[in-house]
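Reopening this ticket.

The earlier resolution said the output was attached, but the attachment link was broken on my side. Pasting everything inline this time so it's all in one place.
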Amino acid sequence: MNTHSPTRESGFTLVELLIVMSVILILLTLAIPAMQSVIRRGNETSAIASLRMLNEMEGEYNSNYPQHGFACSLTALGGKVGSGPPTAESAQLIPDDLATGNKAGYTFTISGCAKSTINNVDQYNSYTITAVPNSVGHSGNRGFCTDENAQIRYDPKGGTNCTELLQ
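Inline output:
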């Protein structure tokens, strides 16, 4: 006579697995928005640092090429280091990623260049640099602007209507 007592299989029941999965999903729904906020803040910090560097490099460009004044394009400030000597059209002052106009979720442009003619040579004496999020609310919340005065202002709506002074 064989008397077996029923043995219970080891492992998790379906209900236990569903409970664990639901707890994990709840934690993820709380963590993802916080992570996106950290990413947006990091992108904005990177954009501000890039604008400060661009202002410095505009001053450097103006010193190196006084006959041109300021650079009126990112490509004039950029250029591959070691591809030949720097020129007014490719000064090799900024990194390649910034010279393309896209960095850390922001698009950078130089515009609003005003020029004057001195000794029959056009010189740019002003510029405006803008940095706007590629996707407002996702890659950044604020748009940033600066000019030859090196003050950085921002647009809380993510555009180029920069009215607030960055502190």
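Reporter confirms the inline version is readable. The longest strand covers residues 106-118. The helical segments are 14-64, 74-77, 96-99.
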